[in-house]
Structure of Ethanolamine ammonia-lyase subunit EutC:
Amino acid sequence: MSGINIDENKIVEAVMKALQGQISEADSSALAGALKAGDNPDDGELPDITAIPENDICLVDSPKNREAILRLKRTTPARTATGRIGDREKALIVFRKKAAHAGASDAVWDEADLSFAEANNIPVIESAAGNKEQYLMRPDLGVKVREEDMEVVKNRLKKNPDVQIILGEGQSNLAIQKGLPELYPALIQGLEANGIDYGTPVFVKYTRVGVGDYISDAVGAKISCVILGERPGLLSWNSLSVYLTYGAKPGILENSRTVISNINDDGVPYSEAGAYAADLIKKILAEKKSGSELVV
């Protein structure tokens, strides 16, 4: 077996041709269109199976009511009606899962995109983790600002604001690339409309939520507002979350945080989340509490 050369591209091409054979000429679904896109052998490219909407995939053999299955699929992003080949999943589903896993892995391992921070003149510092490997292996370092950057916190960030905004890639660089251009302006607009002092926003590489406790405590902010990319999964790897903590300081309990999560294209819209965060900050300032003590 060691002397056999295996061409993986030919294997994939053969599988895709087999899948195309399962699609009737009359089928106009997105699945059919994506698979038939590979009919031309001269284009040199296979169809992008990640572009097929999950709602269009029904691989159940000879379903009694295909339309009912598709209606059911439109109610959930979960992978349903995937069919089986014997005791295993069909090739298209396996490939889509592998592609989703690769996307999630890229979201975690990609270095932070600092273009948004640079375009908005936001200072950039780092957590004590120092690099991606340490960040993932040592969560305790991600909640602290590295020693040399504490000078930036003390000297460049405005003292005693109502809220200190901390941005960071967290565990999804893709999330901040996609979401910050919409969420951040909506947040700032809402804060300014309510006359709330948001001080000097800062971007922290290798961010954990707790880093906001150290920074907000150092500048004397009433509220810490941490916006970062969340850990990706196989269904979404571009989700942001906003963590709001009143009286943030190192060691504060996690139940002190008010959270807006699942901010993505298929969840809470980015701009809506920014506006809602501004409203929550106003409420937290008025009631002087957050987390489990705050009724929203």
The chain is about 40% helix and 15% strand. Residues 22-28 have pLDDT under 50 and may be disordered.
